Amino acid sequence: MAREIISTSKAPAALGPYSQAVKVDNTVYISGQIPLIPETMEVVEGAFDVHARLVFSHLKSITEEAGGNMNDITKVNIFLTDLANFPIVNEVMAEFFDEPYPARAAIQVAALPKDVVVEADAVMVL
User: Fold this and answer.
1) Residue 77 main-chain phi, psi, to 5 deg
2) How much is the pTM?
3) Domain with 97 in it: what CATH number?
4) What's the average pLDDT block by block, 10 residues per block, for the chain (126 residues)?
5) Do 47 and 117 touch, CB atoms closer than 8 A?
6) Could you give the number of structural domains in the chain?
């Protein structure tokens, strides 16, 4: 089993003892991404769609660093503090993925790190 740590400065640095992504053979496990500006590690300002786009931009940067692209993602988990934002997530996802779309779960949670409103992680197969 070949294991490789994937890291890019185009996505936020880890906030704890974890890696941005870990590649095992041809599968890449991408850690949860939140809407932090990588250069400042501050939460982006703006409406929910701005936050969601930044989260998916981080996933995109990590997939590219791993040698793939967003359409190589097979599973996405999205964590929302308010499921009322679900339709916006659908719109934003459609900007980043082509059909056939990955499998997905959308889960409402009480809180997320740094009090953000959205987080997403993913599994990618190269």
Assistant:
1) -115, 130
2) 0.97
3) 3.30.1330.40
4) 94 95 98 98 98 98 98 98 98 97 98 98 98
5) no
6) 1
What whole-number percentage of the chain has pLDDT above 70? 100
| Closest of 64, 66, 75, 65 to residue 100, by C-alpha | 75
- Give the C-alpha separation, 92 to 89, whole Å: 5
CA distance 8 to 58: 9
Query: What is the C-alpha to C-alpha distance for residues 48 and 16, in angstroms, rounded to an integer?
Result: 25
Nearest to 57 by CA among 97, 29, 17, 27: 97
Paired strand residues for 4: 23
Mean pLDDT across the chain, nearest whole number?
97
> Virtual CA dihedral for 64, 104, 78, 89, nearest 10 degrees?
90
| Domain, as residue range, for 94 | 3-125
